[in-house]
Amino acid sequence: MSSSAKGEAALALHRFGMGPRPGSIAAIASDPRGALIAELDRPLALSAAEGLPSSAKAYRTVADANARRTAKAKQAQQQAKKLQEKQQVATAGTAMVEGANEPHSEKQAQDAGEMAAKKAADAVPDPGRPIYLQEAKVRIEAALAAEIGFAERLVWFWSNHFSISANRIQSMSGAYERESIRPNALGRFVDLLVSVETHPAMLFYLDNLASMGANSIAGINRSRGLNENLARETLELHTLGVRTGYTQDDVISFANVLTGWTLVPPGDNPEHGGEFTFNARLHEPGPQTVLGKLYEQEDAEQGRAVLRDLASHPATATHVANKLACHFVADTPPPALVEQMAKTFRDTEGNLKEVAKAMVSSDDAWSQPATKLKRPSEWGVAMVRSTGIMQIDPTRFTAGQELLGEPLWRPPSPKGYPDDEASWIDGIGRRLDIANNFAERVAATADPHDIIENVMGSSVSLEAREAVDRAESRQQALALLFMSADFQRR
Amino acid sequence: MSFANHLPTRREMLIGSGALFAWTQMPKIARAEGRDPRLLVIILRGALDGLGAVAPVGDPDWIGLRGESALLLDGKTPALPLDSFFALNPAMPNLYRLYKKQQALVVHGTATPYRERSHFDGQDVLESGIAKPGAVSTGWLNRALVAMESGGRVDPAGSRVLGVGAVTPLVVRGAAPVMSWVPQKLLPASADTQNRLLDLYQHTDPKLAIVLQARMRLAALGGLPGMSDPMSEDPTFAPPGIARVRAYFAEAAGTAARYLARPDGPRVGAMGFVGWDTHIAEGAITGQLANLLGALDGAFAAVETNMGEAWNETVVAVVTEFGRTARINGTNGTDHGTGTVAFLAGGALRGGRVVADWPGLKPAQLLEDRDLKPTIDLRAVLKGILKDHLRLEDGVLARAIFPDSADVKPMTGLVG
User: A331 and A401 share a domain?
Assistant: First the structure.
């Protein structure tokens, strides 16, 4: 096996995969590009996810807990109030004499009530957090188990492209990725788009649940009305891209189209609460013009028709191709590569597997120097993969990601996490703390020389090898290896 | 070989739980005498510069050897006189106080039988007690515990070795069960690790180098004032987070002591401290080494305090895989060497002295014209402690604990 073949295999794992595992370079060295493509043809199912609740079920569970919490708090507050009143009656004589104390005791009663309410509320645990951690574990371990991890990287990419935030909908954040992103990440873009924009998590996150048309049944009698958020972000972030010619009128029309896209209220319906539904009472009646085209469909079909056209718009092809190339290949990818991917997108009606294949089939995707800095999540998984560890503690792992500025499913805005070096490079110092800590935990079982020889192979520079050889302890050697440019760059 | 036993599943569990310290219970023979001895072993990983820790100020070649880096009795930061010949690094006032109380002792010019200069192999030899490095899975302290228990049979519910930290040190691994405890405080990447990474980046990735350097400068600015003299060293190498290192050493050692002090606790424990590989800007007087020795000094104080009454029955042994070059290298540091010091502290010692068979510092007196020549086999020191403090027999020590060491006699008179 030539060293250049191994070099390409290592690059395949770093640039397009989740990082090398023991033996993985040798396994794909005969045909790294073929191995990447072959991975796309395998199913992306998550066997470990079987016990996890659907997004609607998770949402209902949290809603139930919230309802219980509110009820308990109210009950406790009332009891505290009654108790306080009794005491006040008992001490009324004194209170009359010391009149100045009257307002004070009233405030005391209020404080006591609030404290009792808070205590009672806190006694009902939030089921959202454990669901989030279970989802995180399944996601991260899928990345650890993947042979190369190209398909998992694509799931992560699309999940970030169609960002939601667990800060607002913790319980659904993992299920959203499993239900909308994963099944479509290697399918057609239009199916991915429709699945995402009709997912309760997205509708919740981008404020579409209560958006109503001014002339809808619900809207006529209310002061509340249209919310443009989902329409704008769908145009700007999810499909066409910013400054691609759509106008404010397009945003408003599209927002009108999307009115009525909401979810079944969880309290009303123990079986379907939290699922997507089209609520005609909220929907703005009549045709709408978006990007110069008239949409006359009734109900949710109107929105689906707009999404179909957005998915096949040439601007979407370019936007998506550029973003994929920026993520995988270079912060400023070769224009020829982007065009080749955009052309594939257009020619195949947005077949995402074909677009991914077009990328790894292009020499341009391989000839770029390794100037990309792995995002913290990628780097963390790569570090664990290199040691052969297959299981993680999700609390610890997500805490690490958070420390590094990339908390799982909690991006700061609908734009998702950035992908460029400049956004992440200042976090290198913190990475060192994490690497040092991880190295300390695994130093007894992970041998740095073994990782160089059997995991990283020729992708480790001579300088990094020397640093490992000279390290004062296995822990230090591992920390230096994990921090080396060979491990950070791709 | 009975000493090659180990319990991988248990070890893996401990690693999974993320711990660094190991322990055993009361040695039977000592108990029969009405004693209840404790032994805590601290491994300094990275190779301690013994000459920077305990300086031979009475050696006529000392100043010529180390120049401006030489600790002196009349230096700007005067070294602490131990006797007419040796002086202690001034960063260690607690150890000095204990020394004056005859509760601390220094062994100088000592080394394990290992004569190469690889950290990993050197630590293997130091901790395994076996002269050849390699695939060793048990440590001498664990085997000592096994030997103390009813003729070699370990009661798994009884004997325990205490290990502190995320990695169970090899010295305590073996057939006797290891209890482990991980300090709450995270040990930050040492100044040394940061410097090495910076060096790596400077050779491979200038952008990452710039970022890391900026962080190190920032951390140095935020450090404790007066901890280092920015004029005397390259500010790049100012030790960021030394306060955290001090806190970690003190917490780890202090908590170990609390466990060892308990009536039902373990009696033998070990932990490792990293950061001693001072190739660049060693700073024995005001830099990294002084800071690390200061942190170690704090660990002694924490052990003494937390042992309480049990301090009188305690020996703390601080050992390292090998020493460093006698001369300063081209980057104001020292490279891997051979002879170095071992520190012993504890109320059970006959301290207040430096044990040495001084080899001298003239070029011909140095090992290979570069290292302090070892004149005391470290195994003799450790065997002396195991024999007189824990009551292990000569034969067992020479066969099972430090195999093939019959010609290395246990040093007498260290304890009692």
Answer: no
